[in-house]
């Protein structure tokens, strides 16, 4: 086969073999370089490193073969030029934002964000002189006046927590580029793709510049590691890695090893999660004690058309609203036997949480209304257990509501 007609390999093939696809030697599994530092052959190595020789290994906060292996694999999986791995999703987000913005700069963001990101924008960036403005996803045209010559980043998340509402990626990119042209600036469009994952949503195809994912969630997938990743151009990743050396949110080799192992089953797991979520959403939509099921894959979902336009799968997150408010929601969550009452998401085990007690705790009724959150909501991160077992589990728990 000629190199020029290179066939695009499947996601699993890329995840399993990484850059070793044509290698005949070496270990099949990635070894853990559980070391903080590296031996120099002689002292000239230190000088070679200082002069920028990438082959000299010095210290694990700068580089580590296990971490670099995972970065290469994720970049391959997500069709990006390069990736940088971090100790958490928040480390990835904060390092990226501080790499792109300095005091006096502005960010335009959609308002429905992961709680940690929202609070970082609200409570921390202000102190560094970085201003965040919010654009309503239902009136993205406002980008044209919210973006100014000071805007360095347009940041968004879709689907969002816990209502799973969507942002039109194509429209957001088109309007940002239009505003960018007017001001002759360069704006980095950055997405938090944690909920959808690269299997269900491919932001680079829409012209997004940087993808962030909390690898703690679907990429890790077993509720046993913390991590975050940024994927983008080589130039951006080089810059962000330089700043990461100062800020220190680098990935640990053992967490990277666990993630490497997880990547091999990523497509299998998330495919099953997509299917289970659809089955559970359909079953619960018919249940008399459930007043609403929010799942982008259901034809009844208000943004189903947009979901079909920009997502290739609808993900593993389902939000339901039970009749009887928060008391009923608590009763259901405490009565489930298969699904686990725990925060977080993306793992092989199904988890449930009540938004008014978790992501949206301590919010006024007005704020809850603004976010579309109601007391009877239960957010479900659907795992890979048997779909029938999950449906039966929710049925028996819903029977406990009086
Ligand atoms: C969990 C999460 C994060 C933060 O990731 P950590 O690994 O917990 O730091 C960011 N965005 C979304 C959508 C998340 O679910």
Annotation keywords:
402 residues, Aspartate Aminotransferase, domain 2, Aspartate Aminotransferase, domain 1, 2 domains, seven-stranded mixed β-sheet, 15 helices, binds pyridoxal-5'-phosphate
Strand content: 5-15%
Gap between N and C termini: 66 Å
> What is the alpha-carbon Rg in Å?
22 Å
Based on CA inertia axes, which overall geometry fits? globular
State the CATH topology of the largest domain: Aspartate Aminotransferase, domain 2
Helix content: 25-40%
CATH-level-4 superfamily name of the largest domain? Type I PLP-dependent aspartate aminotransferase-like (Major domain)
Which molecules other than protein and nucleic acid are bound? pyridoxal-5'-phosphate
Report the uncertain regions: none
What is the number of beta strands? 12
Number of domains: 2
Q: Helical stretch count?
A: 15
CATH architecture name of the largest domain: 3-Layer(aba) Sandwich
The CATH class assignment of the largest domain is Alpha Beta
What's the story with the biggest beta sheet? 7 strands, mixed
State the order of secondary-structure elements, H for helix, E for strand: HHHEHEHEHEHEHEEHHHEHEHEEHEH
Structural class assignment: alpha/beta
Strand order of the largest sheet: 1-7-6-5-4-2-3
Average residue-wise pLDDT: 95
